[in-house]
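Take a look at the protein record below and flag anything odd:
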Amino acid sequence: MTKVMPINEEYSFDDKVIITQTDSAGVITYANRMFCKVSGYTYDELIGQPHKVLRHPDMPKKVFEKVWKTISSGQAWNGIIKNLRSDGLYYWVNAEILPIVDDEYNITGYISVRKQASFKDIKESQELYEKMLIDEE
């Protein structure tokens, strides 16, 4: 069982956003300073890594199947995600993931903008994800 990231001034990013950008395969090409602070990784540790390095084991596979199906079709996806920090703690985000396209509308990458998830959203998502994980067994 992993520990929850404490909500305090050091880790809280209320009213701020964390941003990452990936190539079309989900490999991180950019991370803003706040993302590095919240995730516990340095910029250099993140660049070149698959975004799934942050995937918490409590997240159902079906959530990410839906994410990839949505964004690879050129649409935006929004939802609540539980991420794993470099130190084993975790944090919840309300994520918006958008495809990045070239002049011919070919997807060249993705950008994700996240803000701190509300306690209500966390509670609802946690209950749903627990049920989904049972179904995956």
